[in-house]
Structure formats: structure tokens, C-alpha cells
Specification:
It is built from 9 helices and 12 strands. It is α/β, with parallel strands linked by helices. The longest helix has 20 residues, at about 205-225. The radius of gyration is 18 Å and the shape is globular.
């Protein structure tokens, strides 16, 4: 089977509907996933940040460097996997920078933030379309946002990281219905949750845990290849 590299083709009407559902939220830019098509393994992150929106490629900032380390330890490259996210635009928050003189236009600082459940829902049809097109066998949600998008919010990364879960994932019941909610699809996937690459940047104590999780994922993928 021929493998290509790029973004999975998502129908224009699906993208338009997702952007329409995103109106009114503090989001900017737009970015599709990228990687091998088809791909046995899909990584699902949270949302693009400022660097990703500017460069037009997922995971290019600080977290991207950590993801490259993940892949190196797994014996993989970006050419072997598909990378996507729960939200396709950058969630941001603005804050007035203190210290401006009276009468001077205040400077605004814009930073990334965690997407809301409604923002994840607004972009859900795009991830559904990518998963259907890429046809992964193993999906690796990185962090709680990606995990909750796939299996619901009844569990957390801290309770499920580093082990495989077999089962269906959530998808929109009707992507053309603005009021559509999640249902579980019929297909079963291997879901292997990991801590988000950004987690270790802010909490170095997770380094050993993540190392063990990556080794467990590497062994799991090897066993799956041999089965």
C-alpha cells in the first residue's frame, strides 16, 4: 500500500461548519493534522499554539521538541505517524501588561490556554474525518483533552497513562447537525494514553514516568507488529 505524507483531505463543508460552530470563541488560525497516510499510529494532542499556527505544522514549539524525543525513543519519525489534535485553532487569552504610563495605549499579552469542551465539540467533525481517512490501528491521546475527546471525561491521563485500552471512540452522531453530540462508533481501536509533551516541561518529576510509558508503548507496538 502506497503511503503519502501530508494532511488528510477534510471536506470543505466540514471545515466550514466547524469554523461556524467556533464563532464567538477566543480562537485564532486554523491547522489540519499532518503525517503519514495511511498510518498505523495516530497521535492526538490538544490544540495548536502560536508557533504551530505561524509555521502551519503541528507540534513545532517547545512541546514539539519533546514530541521528537518521544518518537526517537519509540524508534519512529514523523514520516511513520499521523499527528492531529482535538481543536484545530489556537485557543488564546489576552492580558493587559502592567506598567504602562497613563495615557499610553496598554500593551496586550496573548498566551495559549486549554480549550473548552464546547471548543473541542465544535472541531469534532474534523478529527472524525481524519481518523476515518487515516485508518489508524493505534491512537495515542496526549493529555486529558485528547483523551476525553476520544473516550469521554470519566477518566484522566494520570489514571490511564502507559497502558493500552481496547474499545470504540467517540464521534459526532451527525456532523451536519449543529446540535449533534457524541456517540461511540462501532469500530474498536487500541488507545494508548500518554502525558502531553508539554507536561514534562512544567513538571520535570514526570520524566521517569514518561520514560516508562514510552517503553511500554514501544513494547506494545512491537507485540502488535508480531501478532
Amino acid at each position: 500500500m502506497k503511503v503519502e505524507f501530508g494532511s488528510a483531505p477534510v471536506a470543505e463543508e466540514v471545515i466550514k461548519e466547524c469554523l461556524h460552530r467556533s464563532e464567538g470563541y477566543d480562537l485564532e488560525g486554523f491547522l489540519l493534522g499532518q503525517g503519514a497516510i495511511p498510518a498505523r499510529i495516530m497521535f492526538v494532542g490538544e490544540a495548536p499554539g502560536a508557533t504551530e499556527i505561524v509555521e502551519g505544522r503541528p507540534f513545532t514549539g517547545q512541546a514539539g521538541k519533546v514530541l521528537e524525543e518521544y518518537l526517537e525513543k519509540l524508534g519512529l519519525t514523523r514520516q511513520d505517524i499521523y499527528i492531529s489534535s482535538a481543536v484545530r485553532s489556537r485557543p488564546f487569552k489576552d492580558k493587559v501588561v502592567a506598567g504602562a504610563a497613563i495615557g499610553v495605549i496598554p500593551r496586550i499579552s496573548r498566551s495559549n490556554r486549554t480549550p473548552t469542551k464546547n471548543e473541542v465539540l465544535a472541531h469534532a467533525a474534523i478529527l472524525d474525518a481524519e481518523i476515518e481517512y487515516v485508518q489508524p490501528e493505534v491512537i495515542v491521546p496526549m493529555g486529558n483533552i485528547g483523551l476525553h475527546r476520544l473516550i469521554g471525561s470519566h477518566e484522566t491521563i494520570s489514571s490511564l497513562h502507559g497502558r493500552a485500552i481496547e474499545g470504540p471512540i467517540q464521534r459526532l452522531e451527525d456532523p451536519e447537525d449543529p446540535q449533534s453530540r457524541y456517540i461511540f462508533g462501532e469500530r474498536s481501536y487500541s488507545i494508548f494514553p500518554l502525558y502531553h509533551p508539554a507536561a514534562v516541561i512544567y513538571n520535570r518529576s514526570l520524566q521517569e514516568v514518561i520514560e516508562r510509558d514510552l517503553q511500554a508503548l514501544k513494547h506494545f507496538l512491537a507485540a502488535k507488529n508480531n501478532s
